[in-house]
UDP-glucose 6-dehydrogenase (Nakamurella sp. A5-74), 433 residues
Amino acid sequence: MSDGRIAVIGTGYVGLTSGTCLASLGHEVVCGDVDPEKVARMSRGEVPIFEEGLEELMRAGIAAGNLTFVHGAADAVHGAKYIFLCLPTPDGGDGRADLRIVHQVVAEISSLLDPGAILVTKSTVPVGTAKDIRTTLDRDDVFVVSNPEFLQEGTAVRNFMKPDRVVVGSDHRPAAEAVAALYEALDAPAVITSAESSELIKYASNAFLAMKLSFINSIAGLAEVVGADVTEIAGGMGFDDRIGNKFLKAGPGWGGSCFPKDTKALATIALDNGVSFPLLTATVQSNEEAQSRVADRIRAAAGGDLAGVPIGVWGLTFKAGTDDLRDSPALEVVLRLDTENAVITAYDPTVEKNLPAKNGYPDVTVAADVYEAARGAQVIVLLTEWSEFTAIDLAKVAEVAPRATIVDCRNILDPAAVAAAGLKFQQIGRPIS
Ligand code: UGA
């Protein structure tokens, strides 16, 4: 399909989804990863992550012969025209993204690239990284292009196949246009910019969405006090096209592997460049307050003291549709309860075993189902919006936890059904009756 082979370096959810979807568009794709065991599994068509629709697509690519997996970057880049870097860029501990892995890989592959090759950064990288990569690369005949991803975990395949836009940035326009052409079949608007703008579009988009969520969560806090309903407010706001109705669902705070890291990184980029950007610090602070407000509610529902109080938790992942626990607001809330010595039993459809304490996880017993998590609980808190929670048999919950108050932090349960089961009930951003 394209005039050259694509190498994808790094098969996390971004790399694996991008590689698989690019192959499904007809391109020839070779994915390289440092983990030989993972490479062996992927070559057999096993998807190491929880991502709807990915396995079928990956197996189809393998069967068609245009999607392969190899160990290491060197084998993957051999003869490739496009090299997509999909490598981890973790928080370096000071809010700045740690780019060591990216630069290590660029240095490793530099001498192996064909003249005219195009290095594409898909990882979220700070402004100026394309320039820094050119320095590490030290090749005038290889081009560097920024092409950020806007994939959401759980719906990544859908997001890839139906993007709102394709953003490509470079100081070498023909290289940017060649990368944009890889997505031609998707019929999405191509936004071609400088590398710096493209790098900032990614951070600005994630930070803006995080800010929108912090805003609605603060409105939820206000609604609870003044007797308003955040769902009605979000509905009323969302009809305004300038605001839009997406990302206005109040919850226990936002999290995941991207929003917290990217919002902090953008704040640091602004600080490092002497630009005042108080909205970003306020966005992060409001999120921490949203999580604390949930803990306060649970404490109040438990009578003011959490020590020794049995709490049932429904949902641990940072959102539904993923098994990802990274920076999960659910875990943040549970950590607060754990600090106050509550006795926590949790159920999540994707978490089978007790969480390892060494990762800084709270002390939680993981139950096999929602009823076991609820058994004997004084407060049951719903933290992740798994659709199966809307089908919970509330009469059965009332049998195993007759005195419980349910705190629904995603506003997905039906208040009338909870009342019919004889349980006390609270939701986020709605008056406490
Ligand atoms: C986010 C962005 O949405 C993607 O566009 C981006 O590509 C990705 O980060 C990334 O940088 O890789 P993701 O981390 O998968 O995607 O999570 P989201 O679906 O954006 O959800 C983030 C958090 O916001 C979750 O905790 C979710 O529960 C919360 N949320 C989302 C709400 O509380 N309410 C909403 O209405 C929407």
Observations:
- Residues 214 and 286 are 6 Å apart (CA to CA).
- The chain has two domains: 5-193, 227-433.
- The mean pLDDT is 95.
